[in-house]
Amino acid sequence: MSMLSVLPFLKPIHLQSPRSSAGGQRRHTLPASEFRCLSPEDAVSVFEIEREAFISVSGGCPLHLDEIRHFLNLCPELSLGWFEEGRLVAFIIGSLWDQDRLSQAALTLHKPQGTAVHIHVLAVHRTFRQQGKGSILMWRYLRYLRCLPGARRALLMCEDFLVPFYQKCGFEALGPCEVSVGDMAFVEMQHSVRGHAFVRRNSNC
């Protein structure tokens, strides 16, 4: 049985557009807003958003297209996409990790018995930035993780300038991350999935 079928929070949430036909019957339209787990078929759309969001800032992407497909095949239930009228506007991709801190291997591995969710990437389409969508999506994702029986913590690594954003999302800094990519250094951050509820706040993400 799919994990999606037994966890009510994982079911797609639709906010329907209030359009109606002349006869008063609602037209068949795409939902105005939908949150759902991603599938391998979403990989190209994910990569296009990620590439634009990260290459202009850091010159590289956290995940390449084949790595996106890899995680969406292995653990699609650890991803979450935000769709507006069928168009992907923001997403998170995660995998499970089984150690206290992230290591270089965490960039490519999914450990099914792990209790830490490694958040590889959060990205928002350029058209929808500066609207608080990043913080809203993270809030939904952390709520979602509370429905997963084995999840205890969420871990991520980020550059210094993103630390305030993730602190607003309820993460705490653990210090320098062991992982490096080229000459880039990162801060490792943690959020307790079983701890206090995350308070949604506006952000510039």
Automatic annotation (TrEMBL):
InterPro entries: Acyl_CoA_acyltransferase, GNAT_dom, SNAT-like. It is found in: Cytoplasm. The keyword Nucleotide-binding does not apply. Residues 33-194 form the N-acetyltransferase domain. It catalyses: a 2-arylethylamine + acetyl-CoA = an N-acetyl-2-arylethylamine + CoA + H(+). GO terms for cellular component: cytoplasm. GO terms for molecular function: aralkylamine N-acetyltransferase activity. Belongs to the acetyltransferase family. AANAT subfamily. This is Serotonin N-acetyltransferase. It comes from Rhinopomastus cyanomelas (Common scimitarbill). The gene is Aanat.
